Amino acid sequence: MRRIAVRIDDVTPGMDKEKFFRFIDLIESYGLNALLGVIPDNRDESSDVAPIRDDKDFSFIRELKDKGYPLAMHGCFHVYTSDKGGLFPLNDYSEFADLKYDEQLKLIKHGKECLKREGLDTDIFMAPAHSFDKTSLKALKKCGFKYVTDGFGIRPYSMGGLVFLPISLLKSLELRVLKNGITTFVVHTGMMEEKDFKEYEELLKCHGEHFCRYEELFEYNAAPRSRFGHYTEYGLAALKHFVGRIM
Q1: What is the C-alpha radius of gyration for the chain, rounded to an integer number of angstroms?
Q2: What is the pLDDT of residues 144-200, one digit of tens each?
Q3: Domains of the chain and CATH, by start
Q4: pLDDT value, residue 50
Q5: What distance in Å separates the CA atoms of residue 123 and residue 142, rounded to the nearest whole number?
Q6: 29-67 burial, b for 16+ CB within 10 Å, e for fewer?
Q7: Region of residue 19 (left: phi > 0; alpha: psi -120 to 50; beta: else)
């Protein structure tokens, strides 16, 4: 059976907490949790809706961590610096891809230190816009990261000395696939509308047996990704980006 975990992107003190906790309550009603992609030092105004006085209050994230929610460092500032898609070109912009090693290392170190000060240290990395390059992987390893939540596949795989925890190519496809494996649905709660909540309510009601807690991903042995596998993944990401732009 295909297993499906959930990750929530753009978690920040200034986010729309009403939508966020509505989704949290929904998945918890099915015994699930999610990987929380926390922006360490958010400078992307589009991610914030709350008053500025709440901008540094990470207490609700610490509370969820204590309840068993795993965390990922979601970039550093969540501000895009280049027009490159990197190794996984779902988008043509990036906070990291195409920057020099020292620049990427500085961003990653700063982000990790910010989270550590808040009691939110993690060894999982979540790239804004899913975009990173080989230099990013080198800098992440230097800073003690072990996992990257990205890539396509039916199980975790290793590349560049890191373990990749795959995301889904298409939600509808994952639910039709009979082959065993595991993937991740990507959720941006701040962008959800009523129809999106209803979609997830229906998914969980009809396909709840497929969904799992995020930590189940760590139970899989990560096989090395072949060069052919990487080229296939790159092509699928580029194709999805192309189709998305047309639509």
Answers
A1: 17
A2: 999 999 999 999 999 999 999 999 998 888 887 767 899 999 999 999 999 999 999
A3: 2-246 (3.20.20.370)
A4: 57
A5: 11
A6: eeebbbbbbbbbbbebeebbeeeeeeeeebebbeebbee
A7: alpha
What is the layout of strands, in order, in the sheet containing 147-148?
A: 181-187, 2-11, 35-38, 71-74, 124-126, 147-148, 162-164, 157-159, 223-224
Report residue 245's pLDDT band, with 50, 70 and 90 as the boundaries.
Answer: confident
pLDDT in tens, 212-231: 999 999 999 999 999 999 99
Give the side-chain half-sphere CA count within 13 A for 195: 0
pLDDT at 163: 98
User: What is the C-alpha to C-alpha distance for residues 36 and 8, in angstroms, rounded to an integer?
Assistant: 5
CB-CB neighbours of 83 under 10 Å: 12
Token code pair at residue 194: 């009523």
Residues 6 or more apart whose Cβ sits within 8 Å of residue 211: 3, 4, 5, 6, 27, 30, 32, 204
Nearest CA to 49 out of 8, 7, 80, 12 is that of 12
Q: Phi, psi (5° rounding) for residue 181?
A: 150, -175
- DSSP labels, 75-97: -SS----BS--BTS-SSS-BSST
Higher pLDDT, 170 or 25: 25
Residue appearing with tokens 């808040």: 118
* Residues 62 and 50 sit within 8 Å (Cβ to Cβ): no
d(CA 247, CA 241): 10
DSSP secondary structure letter of residue 31: T
Phi-psi region of 44 (alpha: psi -120 to 50; beta: other; left: phi over 0): beta
